[in-house]
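tool_call: predict_structure(chain=1)
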Amino acid sequence: MTHSTIPVATLGTPRIGPRRELKIALESYWSGKSNEAALLETAAALRSANWARQKALGVSVIPSNDFSLYDQVLDTSVMVGAIPKIYGWTGGTVSLDTYFAMARGAQGVSSEEACAHGHHDHGHGVPAQEMTKWFDTNYHYMVPEFVPGQTFELASFKPVDEYRDAKALGYQTRPVLLGPVTFLRLGKSKDPAFDPLSLLGNLLPVYIDVLRRLGANGAEWVQIDEPCLVLDLDAAARDALRRAYATFAHALPRLKIMLATYFGALGDNLDTALSLPVAGLHVDLARAPEQIEAVSEKAPQGLVLSLGVIDGRNIWRANLPALLDRVERVVTRRGTDHIQIAPSCSLLHVPIDLDLESDLDPDLKSWLSFSVQKMDELATLGAALGGGRDSVRDKLQASADAAAARKASPKVHDAAVAARVAAVTAAMVKRGSPFASRAATQRARFNLPAFPTTTIGSFPQTAEVRKARSAHAKGALDDAAYERFLREETERTVLWQEEIGLDVLVHGEFERNDMVQYFGEQLAGFAFTKHGWVQSYGSRYVRPPILFGDVSRPKPMTVAWWTYAQSLTKKPMKGMLTGPVTILNWSFVRDDVPRSAACRQIALAIRDEVGDLEKAGAAMIQIDEAALREGLPLRTSQWKTYLDWAVESFRLCASGVADETQIHTHMCYSEFNDIIDAIGAMDADVISIETSRSKMELLDAFTTYKYPNEIGPGVYDIHSPRVPDVVEMTDLLSRARQRLDDSQIWINPDCGLKTRKWEEVKPALVNMVAAARQIRAVAN
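tool_result:
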């Protein structure tokens, strides 16, 4: 390919490795099967491969420090020494075990055991830091913790070390740092009156130290990410941005900063961004294409504009000629010396390489683009802008042809689905009676004890379960043998739940690979990859379904397994479904129709399943909406529109049942205060939420709102290997009772137990049942 005079940049790339090499190395280290040196060797090899891959694909501005062993926000906390006292850090370089204790918690082992595995544990159990969603993505970050008067110190040289590693391999990279203002805004303090932005003056010297070291080692540019610039900012936040970057400019006059914004439009923060003394500004033109005119017109002529024209969060192939028409106007206006072409955000959010997918429908595959293909698209755009369209004519034509074929494909459009959506009525999105009436009917039907206990749905997907699933997929285990295996796992799990005294049971979901994929595989309009992994958090990777066309449900999806599980017990067995908003938000969604239209289609399909479960005898049906808040627009002015159609979609799938049928839902880590009205409007009979890491603080929203329905606040953190004791759980329940009426409270873990081990799950649930009994005794 002709070398372009337009620089082609990436803001970050996937860390996980084409074959999930990072996951394998992390879990080997955590289990004690390998040591720190082996883990760091794998990490170094992955970074090297990422740099080489980008250079080979024509990327001219290659990032470093975009790699992380767990999370880039946690890396920043460690870099600046924002380590809560509980982790026992006393200064100096932060150890890997302290890092992972912050990420995952630590059960605590003896010093002899730690040394035997090459680890240096603290010798006592500690909980993980709180975790929540990164803006409106399905990536999770570790929430920084701050205290009034906190000081910071340089405690990790990772950005400098990784820049030096790249340089030694012949790559001049642009190091990436999370910006100080965004970092502080992402953090929390146990003192609700404390503003973390007040720590900016203490924090900036550490950033300056890092930037100086990068400059001294040869870095010419540094990318500093301030995605907070696409949020609603007050005067204090804008002042903090001006103060931070004025400080950088004064202390580091020769270092060039590329200020990176993404996930939306700058909007009313545009003037603030353009006033900052930086050398470059990156803008997201995939999420907010409309801002290209205002940005290019207002930006000072000497400012380098990085145009994020390739979507870094979705997998659709770009229509390159159409993009060129838009970008060429900006290049003509500003000149080739002050333009870069880039993805809208880090490519962390998309799979690595489409070429690994040999089984996808050929038409669908021709419409897709993963990280490797997106870099090739960027290089094509750069070549076309620098050397003219003739230099890449064939690639441009192929891109246009693919866009036209997708638009016209009968695989995408189904007239019957469109007609059904058009026939939805107001009565279909409303339960037959108000909650108070339903609750009385349901309590009479179930006769559960106070503070009923249950779990969220899944039980451990052990190595044996995964092995059997893999063998079945490869044809080495026939259908009958695989079903027999799954029935045995289900029976064992149901009987064990009865044995320990849980009140409402689940079947364990051993037949399910993923809470979204399992349903998508049985719905028309979805497709799936084999290697399309993206990171959710740490070593937890997911393969999001590809929602490419109109959605319908050809046949029941869960009824047979529910029927079998219920036959094993007289206790209530929940039917387990994933809700339409979560299926939408955890998929790569088609971009040719509004998200609201796609969501209503999914809702109608799930409504069919709810109806069939009820006909089969299911008295409790859980419809998880783990990702409801995740889809919330970043600007408050757009919230109502989203919440209206999201809540309507949930109600559409849940409202066709009788009063005596109890509808549950579950939500993952979220700040609920700002959407509590919408949660109330969902009108689920019981909602379970993740509250253990926040020590029940998240319930404050439900208290202030006076949420009338029933709630299961999670009493232990399933994202950590720790086994909480009875005292810890009863303490959390006591806090819950301070915020809720006893009649509202259910007792459950924070989330599903799929990723945990049985040796962790069993004692934790036994403790949970014991805690419930203690609380019942106290309440009586």
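agent: The two ends are 77 Å apart (CA to CA). Proceeding to next step.
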